[in-house]
Amino acid sequence: MLNNYPSKASYKAVFLGYNFLPIITWKVLSNPAAEIVAFFNNYRIHKQITYLTINNYDLKLDIYQSLKNKPHPVVIFIHGGGWVDRPKEVELFFLLPYLKMGFSVVNVGYRLAAQSLAPAAVTDCQSALRWTIKNAQKYNFDPEKIIISGFSAGGHLAMTTAMLPTSADEELKVAAVVNWYGITDVKDLLEGPNIRDYALEWMGNQSDRLEIAESISPINYIHSELPPIFTVHGDADLSVPYNHALKLHQALNQANVPNQLLTISGGGHGGFSYIKNLNVYENIEGFFIKNGLLSD
Questions:
Q1: What is the value of pTM for the model shown?
Q2: Is domain 42-290 given the CATH code 3.40.1010.10 in the classification?
């Protein structure tokens, strides 16, 4: 299982805001920050790679990988922020356990609402998967073991990337999805008791916003051929209703899709304790092993 998981002090350091700062700044802030810097010194890092240019806007990703030159399974990670804010670097700490498991990590940025309204972020993340598959040999990715993961809006984008059909002459496949409290029914956040400002902002004043929402809601794309899906969600989440996870879990079970729902009792929208996060990653690792994506 996960050995040498970053210390509790490092975990706290990140949530004090160090994840917003460049690594060179971390070095003078604290020993916990230095621990994270030392961790990444054992990995090869490719920063700010352009994976797509659209409307004169360059979409960037970063790669973190072992120094060993052999094919590795890969996690494509998509940050949260309600489709409206936060940079890709904000959840850097949460990439570390995947690296410890032996994965390479592709950390993806995408267009936020200020750059382009829905569904731009969805197609951006599909393009990031396309880029990862195309460049698998160059970066020693195992194309048969591509996992996609994300938090909140990133969880939604991870699911849509894995689920939504693309053109008939193209097959974008992933081996598994790790969904951290992601939105599964976008329309549910646009009207009724679960309406959320961030979803309204992402949709803007588009006249067909309800139709767009339906077309990019993972709950509408459940079928038996989906890859295994792991979901973690707090049952006291006020940003993304816990019912989104429950309905997804039930629909996946009905379609006989391998899946697991890990409920964080009393958990909100992330911000779980160090111990609870460690337990989540141990469950994720077990899920990967069970589904043939990692060895014991």
A1: 0.91
A2: no
